[in-house]
Specification:
The protein is of the alpha/beta class and 293 residues long. The protein has a single domain, classed as Ribonuclease Z/Hydroxyacylglutathione hydrolase-like (Metallo-beta-lactamase, Chain A). It is built from 10 helices and 14 strands. The strands form 3 sheets. Strands 1-2-3-4-5-6-7 form a 7-stranded mixed beta sheet. A hairpin with an 8-residue loop joins strand 9 and strand 10. It starts with a strand and ends with a helix.
């Protein structure tokens, strides 16, 4: 476990290949897990909490920045283990977790083999879900987490702001970043990515002048200014390139065009997992460019 600021910790990234970073907030005998992660990673999260010498009884909050499978899939498994906890999601999202049929059908089509690898999306007990909205605070002992509505990646998407340490738990309001290769691509999957809203959400995060970004894919970022600049540049570059493509159904061709235009993408076609993931996000971005016409 890596301590990032007083009471704020990075526990690790679940999944092989790496899928979702999990964060722990602790203060005054109370704890919160930020991002449940995929259902297949629930046992790892439970073990990490135990290994951190955090009692199960102290975990009162499990927070999902949005309801995609890699973020909220483990929600019920964690609620089952942490008996005192509630799941916190953005306003309007809970109905999709109580009855997951629509979410599962959509996700299985988009994710392909990842759907089963991530363990699907078990229904969540609605009595243990709390919906929150922009500007509200979640108190974890003496630590206050402010809810920021940050749509674009998904309609019911939120980030969390801890002012004292100037930390943002971004969710997928930022892109997916492979630090060892300095490679970033937009978090822009089907079915509801919105480039216009995404840029507004990025601008909202930039305006806070954060010092720490707890991103989900795939580890915390401390070189914040450069990272946020890179996000703004990459999202804009994708918009410029993909908006000019005539055949917006050609995901493979669009992805290869991006590889030829962005130097840090040269390795992606040779990595099957990364290439599959990139094309998922290309497909969502292309849909936005098609619909907005």
């Amino acid at each position: 476990m890596q301590t990032l600021a007083e009471g704020i910790h990075y526990m690790g990234t679940v999944g092989l290949p790496p899928t979702t970073a999990i964060y722990l907030v602790r203060s005054g005998g109370e704890s919160a897990i930020i991002e449940p992660g995929p259902n297949s990673g629930s046992e790892s999260v439970i073990r990490w909490v135990k290994d951190s010498q955090t009692s199960a009884e102290s975990v009162t909050k499990v927070v999902a920045t949005h309801i995609h499978l890699d973020h909220a899939g483990a929600s019920q498994a964690l609620l089952d283990h942490f008996k005192s906890s509630r799941l916190y999601v953005y306003q309007g999202a809970s109905k999709y977790l109580v009855d997951t049929k629509q979410l599962a059908e959509s996700a299985s089509k988009i994710l392909g083999p990842l759907f089963n690898r991530w363990g699907g999306i078990p229904p969540v007990d609605g009595k243990r879900i709390v919906e929150v909205t922009d500007g509200e605070y979640l108190d974890v002992g003496g630590i206050r987490l402010k809810i920021l509505y940050t749509p674009g990646h998904a309609p019911f998407h939120m980030s969390l702001w801890e002012e004292k340490s100037r930390t943002v738990f971004t969710g997928d309001a930022v892109g997916m970043y492979v630090s060892r290769r300095n490679t970033l691509w937009p978090a822009s999957p089907l079915p509801s990515f919105r480039f216009d809203l995404e840029m507004q959400s990025l601008a909202k995060i930039v305006s806070l002048h954060p010092k720490i970004l707890n991103i989900p894919h795939f580890e915390p970022v401390l070189d914040v200014e450069d990272f946020l600049r890179l996000n703004m540049e990459v999202y804009q570059r994708w918009h410029e390139i993909l908006s000019s493509i005539q055949d917006k159904s050609d995901v493979e061709g669009a992805a290869r065009r991006l590889v030829s235009a962005v130097d840090s993408y040269s390795w992606l076609p040779g990595d099957p997992n990364a290439w599959f993931t990139l094309k998922m996000h290309v497909a969502g971005f292309l849909q936005y460019e098609t619909v907005r016409r």
